[in-house]
Amino acid sequence: MKYIVLGLGHFGRSLGVHLTELGHEVIGADKSLNIVEQLKDKITHTVCLDTTDREAVSSLPLKDAHAVIVAIGEDEGASLMTVALLKQLKVKRIIGRIVSDLQKTVLEAMEINEYIMPEEEAAERLAMRLDNIDIVDSFKVSDRYSIVETKVPQRYVGMTLREANLTNLYKIIVLTTVKITETKKDGITKEQKEASGIATSETVMAEGDILVVFGELSDINKLIQKGE
């Protein structure tokens, strides 16, 4: 997949490097030539430009990108201006970085429903989510094990955990299932998650549910890929 990361500070460079290491094509942009030069061998492509300049941003392959991530954090004004510019240019998927409640409010007003907090761990988690569209969220428990939220694979819809036998087949443990509902407030649509409690062998996996699973990431990926 192709991604564009705008802003190569601590968070942006971490995200760009993680995505590149996962095998994606990444364009990383920053107004600092020094930063761009430092990362040219770690990110697929790097370019020096002002992300608030319409002409400069328009020169990027925005239509080919699966997502454009605005990773600017130090300058909230520049970050919001960049998001607004991307909205004007009709970018199909924009992910914003937020560093304050006010910035979050403004992004929501612009109907940007995907945003991320600026921890380095969050960059790795976002990279994993972008790497596999069926992964909703994740975090590492240790170097080997992770907890991952993933969509119920289509072949298991309607089955109980006993029938699916996921633990024996994939060496993973389903901790719980989560239902997602949408609510509207002040014209803004938000998703709400509700866990069903600790999973049992009789837990049914419904269409649209999220599985919260524990295991090695390689085994979790086998579940996702074989379940398509």
Outline: globular
**Average pLDDT score:** 86
Q: How many helix segments?
A: 9
Q: Using DSSP, what is the number of strands?
A: 11
Secondary structural class = alpha/beta
User: For the record, what CATH class of the largest domain applies?
Assistant: Alpha Beta
CATH topology of the largest domain: Rossmann fold
The CATH architecture of the largest domain can be named as 3-Layer(aba) Sandwich
Number of domains: 2
Q: Can you tell me the residue ranges where pLDDT is under 50 for at least 5 consecutive residues?
A: none
Distance between the termini: 18 Å
Q: What portion of residues belong to β-strands? A: 25-35%
Helix fraction? 25-40%
GO molecular function: monoatomic cation transmembrane transporter activity
Domain RCK C-terminal: 134-228
InterPro entries: NAD(P)-bd_dom_sf (IPR036291), RCK_C (IPR006037), RCK_C_sf (IPR036721), RCK_N (IPR003148), Trk_Ktr_HKT_K-transport (IPR050721)
Organism: Sphingobacterium detergens
